[in-house]
């Protein structure tokens, strides 16, 4: 028999796999659009996220392994190779896996990026780290990207880290699908109701919906409200699932008369939410909401007022146009943390309905199936901070359960909070936003060298859009001036409190600015403190009475050749 006539040759023995653990396992992703028509999904791994993924998904508890994952040098000593699998509907879709290390001198430029092209056929492909051309400037593991030839592609991905000799990996347990129809699931959802609150406004909205009248349901919050972790982000997020359920249960089964507003901005607290409510929810007077869900319980740790901005936002919404029903939603992080204890007093004082995802899911995370476990942390969370699709559904089902309870109960007499003392503080209830577009005759502004408009700003997916919209696009940008004195931004305003919103960035091209009030320095604004493109509000001053003030923003000495962006101001008269 000639060689050409032989049958199939027996394959070589398979390479024995090293011990390893998952940092992603069956994770649903979608390709967000880029300007060139391609698609990408970013998964950030800095600031402890990679270690958290190892704990959450890979069952890793050994501190030595977790510590090594915090730096590129440690990761290289720990990990031998990376296994990647991508499964898309069309297995011919080309996919590029990229694992970028952030650099020391320039985080997004000077570090190594590991790149591997893989088919989207669900098979595992392995990248060996010893074959990489490593940069001497590597600092920390930064982000993982899945890059697609076009946007709008949905895929399921898994990433496993295979370890070098001398390390042992924990057992990677199997997980059963979540049974959303089980009695245990329903009992879990019922636990989410902290308090039903006064139902008069909810009853009114439900009645309008059933009568075919126009009803608007709005959601304001952080990245969870934006839809982070949901795939697709526009229709699998808790906000849309709640809206869809309201249409189905309380309306006429369609959204013909029920309208939807989603106004979540990633990484931002109620300190920013109270500034953008009129613009992002009310559309500067064009929208009058009937129901508003407020979700800031995992974003407000950085609120410098420790709850007063949250209290002020709740009052602003409740006493604002439409006299809407206000629902307080308390999300949860993978470490079982939120600010329920700090912020819950607001809902208790104002008799508002409150729904707690933490109260619903955390206890059962640590139970067996026999004890009542419904969903694991890996199934609930997309990462340390955001729920996956199943988690978003649970959040929505908690709100819908609360709505069904309100629907079934007798109607309360409407409650007014106008004369109720704010439990934390309501000094910012009347704050309003001023940006480049809205600055009116009540302000005297001389922008100096802050004359450009910054387009490299935070973008968010609003309402049902998949394409991000700019947040604070009407801004004042300073571009570094070399060899001449920089002219400051000057504002004359009569008020009793002032906030400034500025852009955070990881770019080495941005510098620091100083804020002076009536000739006295009040703040130094450092865009690198947060380290990513982000909207950052801070209080410049506050007082008991309103008065005239001259405000000046100037580049800090040594930063004159760097950039800085003022996104807007918050003013309380």
Overview of this structure, please?
21% of the residues lie in helices and 31% in strands. With 573 residues, the protein is an alpha+beta fold. Strands 16, 17, 20, 21, 22, 23, 24 and 25 form an 8-stranded antiparallel beta sheet that branches.
Task: Describe the secondary-structure layout.
Blueprint: E1 20-30, E2 32-33, E3 39-44, H1 49-56, H2 63-68, H3 72-78, E4 79-88, E5 94-103, E6 113-119, E7 121-128, E8 138-148, E9 154-163, H4 183-190, E10 193-195, H5 200-210, E11 215-221, H6 223-226, H7 238-249, E12 258-264, H8 270-281, E13 291-295, H9 308-318, E14 325-330, H10 340-350, E15 354-356, H11 357-365, H12 377-380, H13 389-408, E16 432-434, E17 444-446, E18 459-460, E19 469-470, E20 476-478, E21 489-504, E22 513-517, E23 520-525, E24 534-555, E25 564-572
Parallel strand pairs: 11-12, 11-13, 13-14, 14-15
Antiparallel strand pairs: 1-9, 2-3, 3-8, 4-7, 4-9, 5-6, 5-8, 10-15, 16-25, 17-21, 18-19, 20-25, 21-24, 21-25, 22-23, 22-24
């Amino acid at each position: 028999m000639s060689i050409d006539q032989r049958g199939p040759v027996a394959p070589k023995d398979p390479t024995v796999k090293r011990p390893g653990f998952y940092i992603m396992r069956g994770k649903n992703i979608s390709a967000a659009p880029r300007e060139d028509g391609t698609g990408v999904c970013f998964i950030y791994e800095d600031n402890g996220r990679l270690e958290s993924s190892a704990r959450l998904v890979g069952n890793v508890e050994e501190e030595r392994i977790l510590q090594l994952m915090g730096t590129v040098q440690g990761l290289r000593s720990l990990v031998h190779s990376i296994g990647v699998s991508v499964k898309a509907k069309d297995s011919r879709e080309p996919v590029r896996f990229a694992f970028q290390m952030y650099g020391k001198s320039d985080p997004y430029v000077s570090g190594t990026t590991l790149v591997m092209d893989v088919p989207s056929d669900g098979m595992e492909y392995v990248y060996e780290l010893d074959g990489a051309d490593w940069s001497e400037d590597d600092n920390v593991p930064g982000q993982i990207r899945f890059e697609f030839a076009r946007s709008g592609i949905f895929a399921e991905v898994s990433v496993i880290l295979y370890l070098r000799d001398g390390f042992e990996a924990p057992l990677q347990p199997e997980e059963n699908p979540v049974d959303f129809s089980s009695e245990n699931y329903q009992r879990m959802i019922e636990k989410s109701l902290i308090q039903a609150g006064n139902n008069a406004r909810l009853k009114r909205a439900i009645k309008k919906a059933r009568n075919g009248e126009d009803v608007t349901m709005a959601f304001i919050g952080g990245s969870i409200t934006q839809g982070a972790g949901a795939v697709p982000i526009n229709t699998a997020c808790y906000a849309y699932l709640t809206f869809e359920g309201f249409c189905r249960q309380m309306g006429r089964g369609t959204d013909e008369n029920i309208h939807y507003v989603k106004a979540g901005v990633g990484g931002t607290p109620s300190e920013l939410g109270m500034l953008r409510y009129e613009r992002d929810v009310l559309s500067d007077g064009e929208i009058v909401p009937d129901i508003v869900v407020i979700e800031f319980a995992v974003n407000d740790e950085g609120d410098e007022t420790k709850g007063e901005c949250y209290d002020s936002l709740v009052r602003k919404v409740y006493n604002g146009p439409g006299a809407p029903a206000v629902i307080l939603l308390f999300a949860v992080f993978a470490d079982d943390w939120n600010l329920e204890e700090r912020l819950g007093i607001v809902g208790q004082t104002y008799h508002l309905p409150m729904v707690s995802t933490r109260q619903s899911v955390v206890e059962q995370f640590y139970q067996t199936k026999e004890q009542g476990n419904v969903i694991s942390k890996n199934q609930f969370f997309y990462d340390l901070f955001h729920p996956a699709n199943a988690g978003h559904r649970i959040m929505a089902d908690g709100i819908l359960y609360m709505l069904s309870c309100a629907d079934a109960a007798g109607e309360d007499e409407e409650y007014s909070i106008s004369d109720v003392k704010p439990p934390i503080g309501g000094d910012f209830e009347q704050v309003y936003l001023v940006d480049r577009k809205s600055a009116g005759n009540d302000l005297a502004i001389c922008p100096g060298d802050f004359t450009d408009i910054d387009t490299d700003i935070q973008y968010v997916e609003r309402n049902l859009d998949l394409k991000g919209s700019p947040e604070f696009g009407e801004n004042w940008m300073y571009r570094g001036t070399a060899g001449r004195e920089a002219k400051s931004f000057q504002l004359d305003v009569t008020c009793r409190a002032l906030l400034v919103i500025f852009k955070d960035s990881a770019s080495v091209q941005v510098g620091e600015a100083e804020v002076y009030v009536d000739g006295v320095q009040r703040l130094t604004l450092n865009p690198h403190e947060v380290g990513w493109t982000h909207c950052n509000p801070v209080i410049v001053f506050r007082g008991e009475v309103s008065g005239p003030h001259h405000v000046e923003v100037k580049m800090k000495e040594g930063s004159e050749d760097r950039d800085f962006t003022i996104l807007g101001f918050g003013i309380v008269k």
